[in-house]
Amino acid sequence: MTAYDNIVAHERTSWALSQVMGRLGWDQETMMPRGAAEQRGEEMAAMEEVLHARRTDPRLGEWLEAATAPDAKGEAILRHVRRSYTRNTRVPAALAAELARVTSVAQGVWAEARARDDVAHFLPTLTRVIELRREEASALAENGALYDALLNDYEPGISGDEIAAIFARMRTRLVALREKVLGAAYQPAPMKGEFPRERQLRLSRTLAEAFGYDFAKGRLDLAVHPFSSGSGADARITTRVAENDPFNCLYSTIHEVGHACYEQNIDEGYRYSPLGEGVSMGVHESQSRIYENQLGRSRAFTGWLHGQMRHEFGDLGLDPEGFFGAVNRVQPGHIRTESDEVHYNLHIMMRFDLERALISGDLQPGDLEAAWNDRFLRDFGVAVDRPSHGMLQDVHWSIGLFGYFPTYALGNVYAGCLMKALRKDLVGIDTALAEGRPTVATEWLTAKLQRHGGLREPRDTITEACGFEPSEAPLMDYLEAKFSDLYRL
To answer: Catalytic positions (predicted)?
Structure first.
């Protein structure tokens, strides 16, 4: 076997083991007995030790020095393996295992604290997670910014300063749009009523299939915080149900379907390699957000969904245009995952600034709640009424995902670019959406982006799909046009 062949064989096993570890995480969120948290932490730590040993195997370094790629696919594989090897050889195995153990247990602590609205219960664990992530960042940063070292795990090729500049440009237009919308004479009415759990879940399955999700290679379950897990022939989704708010369930499902379809639609020839997964979290989020928002919340698609809702739940008290307004109402609420398209990125910008300060040491964990509440009041004009509506609402920090939050807003930016290109190519897209056939759009996304997996770098992935360099302008143009129309500005 050549050095390249050895790398491919080695990565195949590592990829399979990482999928097994991901399945442990899925089980923890959906079915694991509550009393098993400590044991699961040990299991996750053991898996991480095995994976870390494989990722830092000295033979990998030798093979990388000698390997020659046979083609463009091989060059991309070597690029990913080299990046992973460089990163993991800088992080001590004991630190990697401790991070896996602590964050696994921390997830349960966070869930308990959130249920009890008890910040003090979570703070010692959060402090330990931050200490470990700062230690990891120090090993990776090579005298650069600690936060950038963590950000690189989720969105290679971009810095915190670059993201801050994008967000600054977006903030000006978002705030101006929000003020116009909230001050508009016309305000859409909300949809009210009770919507039984089982019917919501049945309609969720219908929506998942409408967007192209393959249930032969996935499943739909319930979780406190909806997520997607797995890749290739096993890509699972979760949602949650509130019987007085069906949009929470339905649009969480569509969002996670976007993630899962990306994974299901990657070229099968890339499976069991670094190319067999989404290339970055920003690109991943572009798929979930374009499925959920530009397609799922469009006037055309909500017209079809209105009919499906009436079939499932009876009279809604709204005509199709009123239903479109209810789906897209702009309201300054506490919860990021329930926020409208105008406010969503403001939620992300706040978290980005706070977590960047936590990692740099400019903000201490004990001061986070006050900093969050002060910033939220300034940004949204609403006081935080309880911790589960504030710093305890998201799972991310409990599991150490510092650097992850900004990829949500980057995903929106990328989705804006993709929708601009998609509309140029698919002139009749609104007709298909109005007929409940979003697969016309999602098949375009598969061909242009999803099937390529990790073949290209994140920014290049978007550029190749769209035919132009990504920027925030298409997203902001889309938001201003949509909500000016909806609110009759």
So the answer is: 256
pLDDT at 300 over 90: yes
Count of CA atoms in the C-beta half-sphere (13 A) of 354: 23
| 259 assigned binding-site residue | yes
Question: What is the mean pLDDT of the segment spanning 230-244?
Answer: 96
SS3 category, 213:
coil
80 is in an annotated binding site: no
Asked if the structure places residue 149 within a domain, the reply is: no
Q: Which amino acid is at 449?
A: L
Average pLDDT, the chain: 96
Q: How far apart are CA 214 and CA 263, in angstroms?
A: 11
Residue 220 main-chain phi, psi, to 5 deg:
-120, 125
> Hey, CA dihedral for 81, 82, 86, 89, is it positive or negative?
positive
**What pLDDT, in 10s, does the model give residues 24-63?**
999 998 999 989 989 998 999 899 999 999 999 999 999 9
Query: Is 43 annotated for ligand binding?
Result: no
Residue 458 near residue 272 (C-beta atoms within 8 A)? no
Active-site option among 256, 277, 341, 480: 256
Catalytic (active site) residue 469: no
Round to whole Å and give the CA distance between 197 and 151.
38
> Residue 48 sits in which domain range?
3-144
Under the phi-then-psi rule, with left for phi > 0, alpha for psi from -120 to 50, and beta for the rest, what region is 65?
A: alpha
Same domain, 285 and 414: yes
Look up residue 472 and give its two tokens.
Answer: 């925030």
**Token pair belonging to 196:** 């039984």
Domain count, the chain: 2
